[in-house]
Amino acid sequence: MRIFPAPRPNERGFTFLEISVVVIIIGLMAVFVYPKLSGILAADDLRITALRLAGTINRVRDQAASTKRPHRLNYSLDANQVWVTVLSDDEFGDDASIFSGPKTLPDSVRFADVSTPQTGKVSGGETFTTFYPNGYADASAIHLEGTRGRIYSIIVNPLTGRTAIYDQHVEQRAIPDLSAE
To answer: Residue ranges of the domains in the chain?
Structure first.
């Protein structure tokens, strides 16, 4: 007794040549599609990093209000890292309540620059945004750049400490000094 029946004369399978041609076509398609797909994934890294950084900013603002102590979100533009410090005994020191140690941005994302009133536009080295217990914050514009030159901007509102995210380069608008009136 045969397990597989004998092929009928009108039934044909695929030849090795036909299967090879299909595999080559699929391989060529993959070669052309992969670079576009990796660009899409890098753009997602940039967007996700901007969202996470905005979330971190909101957490630092909330922590400053709840502990009634100024907090800083520090940026190392050269190392592509962020970390949190808190004012204690007239000096800013590490704060492990939000996250411990510096957090590094993904390899496909870097800081393009960070602008604050205290330091101006910084493209290298370190800078920070301070969040105060009353809900105020340093006006800040944080620009993240992806591998293909795409920019995301995170703008920190100085009066509320809240963030706005833009998928383009946006500068912090000047806020009039309300105490002068």
So the answer is: 16-180
Class of domain 16-180: alpha beta
Q: In this structure, are residues 107 and 92 in contact, taking their beta carbons and an 8 Å threshold? A: no
What integer pLDDT is reported at residue 61 of this predicted model?
93
Q: Which residues fall within 8 angstroms of residue 141, CB to CB, at 6 or more apart? A: 114, 115, 153, 154, 155, 156, 170, 171, 172
Q: What does DSSP say about strands 140-146 and 151-156: parallel, antiparallel, or unpaired?
A: antiparallel
State the pLDDT confidence band at 130, using cuts at 50, 70 and 90: very high
Residue 111 and residue 114: Cα distance in Å, rounded? Answer: 7
Burial label for 45, CB within 10 Å (0-12, 13-18, 19+), is middle
CA dihedral 122, 126, 132, 133 (to 10 degrees): 160
- Based on C-alpha coordinates, what's the Rg of the chain? 26
- Residue 24 confidence (pLDDT) above 90: no
